[in-house]
Amino acid sequence: MKGLTAAQADDVRKALHTAERRSGLRFGVFIGEPVGGRRHFAERLHAALGDEADRAVVIFVDLAGRGLEIVTGEDARRRLSDSACRLTAMSMATAFSVGDLIGGLLYGIAALGEQATARR
């Protein structure tokens, strides 16, 4: 994962696995620069999951553009409201703004996984 050390990338993978196991949803993180508009790019990443897209959550972090997008599939959206995603994104962005990329990612993955599990 771009921008992370090997140990940090391993921590993110573990957090993704935990969120997936607990919630039954598919979680993915992409760190990089978008090709085209940020939201459109995040939606394309999500759509690339094919059959898994309906139950997937994609977190896209644009470090260079200082942006963040969370995209949910149809099934995932039933368990993760737009407001829940917005609040999580705000907390993640706060961590990112003080240079804590890994803390923001781990918090966001865990928070979304918890919220999805609670509404399972």
Q: Stretches where pLDDT falls below 50 for ≥5 residues?
A: none
- CATH topology name: Diaminopimelate Epimerase, Chain A, domain 1
Tell me the fraction of residues in β-strands, as a range: 15-25%
Largest sheet, in brief, is: 3 strands, mixed
- Corresponding CATH architecture: Roll
Run of helices and strands = HEHEEHHH
Radius of gyration: 13 Å
Compute the separation of the termini in Å. Answer: 29 Å
- The tally of structural domains comes to 1
Broad structural category: alpha+beta
- Helix count from the secondary structure assignment: 5
The average pLDDT value, as a whole number, equals 94
Specify the helix fraction band.
Answer: 55-70%
Based on Cα principal axes, name the global outline. globular
Order of strands across the biggest sheet?
Answer: 1-2-3
State the total count of DSSP E strands: 3
How would you characterize the overall build of this protein?
With 120 residues, this protein is α+β, with helices and mostly antiparallel strands. The chain has one domain (6-118): Diaminopimelate Epimerase, Chain A, domain 1 (Roll), CATH 3.10.310.50. Helix content is 57%, strand content 16%. It has helices at 6-23, 38-47, 74-79, 82-97, 101-118; strands at 26-31, 56-62, 67-72. It has a three-stranded mixed beta sheet with strand order 1-2-3, sandwiched between helices. Helix 1 packs parallel to helix 5 (101-118) and helix 4 packs antiparallel against helix 5. 32% of the residues are buried. It holds the Pfam family DUF5130. The chain crosses the membrane at residues 87-110. Keywords: Membrane, Transmembrane, Transmembrane helix. This is DUF5130 family protein. It comes from Nonomuraea maheshkhaliensis.
